[in-house]
Structures are given as C-alpha cells and as structure tokens.
Here is the input.
Amino acid sequence: MAANQAQLLMLLNQVNMLENQMKQSAVVPNMAMNQSSLNPNLLKLVAQMQAKGSKQQSSQDKSKFKVKRENENPQMAKVLAALTGVASPDDKPSRGKCIWVTGLPESFQDTDKLVNVFGNFGNVRKVVYSDKKTDGALIEMDDSRGSVKAVAIMNNKKVDGQAIKVSFTSIDRAGIKPSDSKSKDIRQAKENWRFSGNKDGKFRRICLSRLRDLTSSVMVTNIPEGKTDQLKKHIIEAGYTVKSMEGSKRPVDESKPKSGYTMAIVELASIEEAIDAVANLHNSWPKKFGTKNKDRFENERGLNFSFMGNKKEQKPKA
Here is the structure.
C-alpha cells in the first residue's frame, strides 16, 4: 500500500516538473510528440496506477490523494490526458456547424432528400459525400444550434428501413473538391431554404422550439385554398398512408387580406413514413394545383412539408 502511495506522489511530482519545463521552453503544443524524451519510468507508472489505483486504494487513501477537479490545474489535466490517452470526463465533443450522417441507404444518398430532411433544423449550406465511407455525408448547417438539434432528433432514426447515425464534429466548414460532382453547395440556391437569413428570427426560434422528438404527423403549408382533397390524393399516390388530416384551427382575421393559401396537419402511418414524406414531397407541386406560389423575392415555392414534434405538456396551474 505504501509503495502505491509513493508511486502516486512520485508521478504527481514528475508531472509538475514536466509542466514547468514545458512552460519555460514553450513546447506545450508539441508535448504529445516528445514523449520519448521523458523519464522512461513515467509512462510505466501511469499505466500501473491506472490499473491498480482504483481497486487497491482504501477510501482513506482516495480522500488523501484525490485532487478535486474544481481545484485541478487545467494544464496538468492536459498533460495527464496526453500521457495516458484518456480524455477528461469533463471534455465534451466539439459542436461546429457540421454534422456527420452515416449509415445512409442508397436511396437517401441524395442531396435534395438530405436538404429536405435536415433543413428542418436550420438552413443547409453544403452536403459533402465521403470517398472513404460511401454511406456517409458531411452536412454543413448555417448555425451550430441547427446541428445540435439535428443530432438530438435524427440520431438512430430509420430511413428506408435503416437506422442512421448523426453525430457532432469539430469541422466548421465543409470543403468540396473541384472534381467532386456528387457533393453540392446549396448557398447559391437560397430560394430553397426554409428560413430567412436571420438566424435569430422569430419564425426560426418558434419552429425549433416546437421540434421535440418527432411524430408520425407532418405539417403541410402553401396549399392553395380548396385543394386539400387533392393534397391527400397527392400524398397517397406517392405511396404513403394518410390516417387523418385536419386544417388550420387558427381564427380567421377578416381585417387582413386573404393569401389564397392554407395549411394542413397530416398524420401518416409512422415516424419513418413522416421522414420519408418530408424527404420526397417537400417542394413538390401537383400539376392540378396550377401555378406555383411566389414569395416576396419572386421565387416559386412548392408545398412545404415539415416535421411535427411532440407538444410540450402544460403544467397545471396551482
């Protein structure tokens, strides 16, 4: 027992000495590359203490030698992490604007479908496919909040019968090689974005706050007045099961001019079917609907298919 305690104290002293040396010589960025110049017993001691420390020390030993994390020298923590290869429990994965999507079936290795799905969480800027992993894609969002929402909601969801993995990455900008004809930069097609360029806009905040998990229902907007029956037929002909459909319950404000367009909430057979419908039918437009609606920028807009999240439970008033 005494030998273990002595080893731990020796280890901490050596780490302190190493830290001071690195500060003086300003070689901290290269510490992981200069391990060969360290005391040869240091790495051995680290490995021994990792294997034996937690099992052989009594609770009294732990309280005596354990350094409280809140008082821990952050530089020492980095040194230990570099030597042992073990990240601190406090370390969190970097969350940039990009996300990795892997496990994509061949039918979903399609830029338009990925933009239609992930565009619900923020505007998609680029979709870049991986040469090494053919079932993967790097998706760059215009805001890190969108990437966080996408990971939280879409990870492990099934598309075309296959569960996908959606994870964080520290990459903040996706690059596209000149020879890459499959990947796509959507920044030049902003007319397809769901949200305006204002990242803090009220409409975006409301949409994202309502997206908690997913349901089997989708919201369809930009429907010409009197065409809801044709919308239902359009969805069924695309291969989906319409379990129910209801129109807007918002009171009509007679003081405002009518837009000529309405919305509907469509319940489908499953969450997987809802994802598929958003991927395939967003921005579609049946011929019988007539001329497409144009926005204020004179861009033509098709039907807008969006995810519906679970409603937040209202706490009963006391």
Q: What stands out?
A: Confidence is low (pLDDT under 50) at residues 26-33, 57-72, 82-89. Residues 2-84 form one domain. The longest strand covers residues 217-224.
